[in-house]
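Hi V.,

You were right to ask for the full record rather than a summary. Here it is.
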Amino acid sequence: ACMLCRRAEVDPDICGCKLEKQGLCVHAFCLFLANELFQHQDEEVGLMGFLPEDIQRTIERAAQKRCFVCGESGAAITCREMGCDRSFHLPCAVEGGCITQFFGLYRSFCWEHRPEQAVEAAPEENTTCLICLDLVGDRKSYSTMVCPACKHAWFHRGCIQKQAIHVGFSCFCCPHCQNEYRFLMEMLTMGIRLPRRLPSWENSHAHVALSERHSRCDASECLCPGGREQAEEEGPWHLLLCCSCAAEGTHRRCSCLTNSTASWECDSCA
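Predicted structure:
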């Protein structure tokens, strides 16, 4: 189990990978978010730049603090608001309505002092989450969020977090208006973790298959002298893809189309 949050089974998308070295075992983001624990510039030192002796002292300090959410000891994260002593484990953050910012100074806030969305907006009756399509709350809240740019895209915190993990930093934007910078900065401030990597589909075989344009004639009888794979820029052997599904194609002449025909629909879609 992680020696900071004291959990063996956690959501790796929130707590990060488990690091083990010199008798220590901690989650990456439990390290970054822990109080009074500072990272050295050389990440080759210790665990990602955190010295083992510093980590051990943080573990000992955390053992004296109880998580205000679950009541157990070992709470290494304390609200950054001056004078607030609420501490919690990273896996307890969402249940306690806390916000942990996964960027910059890696600040954390309890439910009372967490940042709130400043945008003036309220969902209409029966507004649904753009991601899961279930109803959202009747106003902005910890669990119901809105795009600060268009003010029309509503979603659940858990849904936009899953979206962020899936799409990564380079493709993250509002699901409705496609705004990037303002949306991204707002979500980071509101505690959404955004991994700095390419979208998860970039490495999937499914994405490769989808990204390959259909490139053969599927007419029952292909008349092209060069065969079904032959395609020219214009004329009778120009390959048209179905305007509805793009999954079937035909040479103009093979479907008795004129050389000026620019659109065609396959039998399945017609």
